[in-house]
Design goal:
The structure holds 2 protein chains of 2 kinds. By secondary structure, chain A is an all-beta fold. Chain A contains no helices and 11 strands. In chain A, strands 2, 4, 5, 6, 9, 10 and 11 form a 7-stranded mixed sheet that branches. Chain A has a 4-stranded antiparallel sheet with strand order 1-3-8-7, with no helix packed on it. Chain B contains no helices and 11 strands. The N and C termini of chain B lie far apart (40 Å). The chains are: A mainly beta, B mainly beta.
Chain lengths: 115, 109
């Protein structure tokens, strides 16, 4: 138990569906992250929020839309996805985004399959 | 570009020792992390090195050489539960974490 929860754990959706992934952290952190993890590839950073403000958007397609209503909750809204978007989506949190020692705490991920 | 290299997969025997290497080329260096990720679970923190040398933590040790852009994770007295992926990540000059693709470690009885 890392203090970061994600729902749902598994999601299968068609290319025309709209769904949302939810992440919640119980660690009192100020920064939250969305990552995409594909087999045999490095973690891809998608979005970063620091004190509810988006600070990073690493050229992510607009079919992925993040939302951070407060420092404890993070959503990833999905619409008109492509099969290549199938992957494990990991949420993480850390005390802040700056500083050399910035240990990130991860949730268990949502395994997404796009048909 | 920034790059982290680590072997894709390694196999070792229960009770033995295994060393997982990580080499990096990044714009600046502000520390190196090792994470463990069991299949279907969250990555969890193992170690952090920012100065050269060996950091020991129980059965696990992590080594860093900044001049060589090199680190390794040493696992002793391997147990079946050590079967997992091990992720190397470097904090660059902008305090961004650059991740390797991970090394899948298979432990055989």
């Amino acid at each position: 138990e890392t203090g970061v929860t994600q729902t749902p754990r598994h999601l299968v959706m068609g290319m025309t569906n709209k769904k949302s992934l939810k992440c919640e952290q119980h660690l009192g952190h100020n920064a939250m992250y969305w990552y995409k993890q594909s087999a045999k590839k490095p973690l891809e950073l998608m979005f970063v929020y620091n004190f509810k403000e988006q600070t990073e958007n690493n050229s992510v397609p607009s079919r992925f839309s993040p939302e951070c209503p407060n420092s404890s909750h993070l959503f990833l809204h999905l619409h008109t996805l492509q099969p290549e978007d199938s992957a494990l989506y990991l949420c993480a949190s850390s005390q802040e985004t700056s500083g050399a020692y910035n240990e990130q705490f991860f949730g268990p991920g949502t395994r997404l399959t796009v048909l | 570009g920034q790059n982290i290299d680590q072997p894709t997969e390694m196999t070792a025997t229960e009770g033995a020792i295994v060393q997982i290497n990580c080499t990096y080329q990044t714009s600046g260096f502000n520390g190196l992390f090792w994470y463990q990720q069991h299949a279907g679970e969250a990555p969890t923190f193992l170690s952090y090195n920012v100065l050269d040398g060996l950091e020991e933590k129980g059965r696990f040790s992590s080594f860093l050489s900044r001049s060589k852009g090199y680190s390794y994770l040493l696992l002793k007295e391997l147990q079946m539960k050590d079967s997992a992926s091990y992720l190397c990540a470097v904090t660059d000059s902008n305090y961004q974490l650059i991740w390797g693709a991970g090394t899948k470690l298979i432990i055989k009885p």
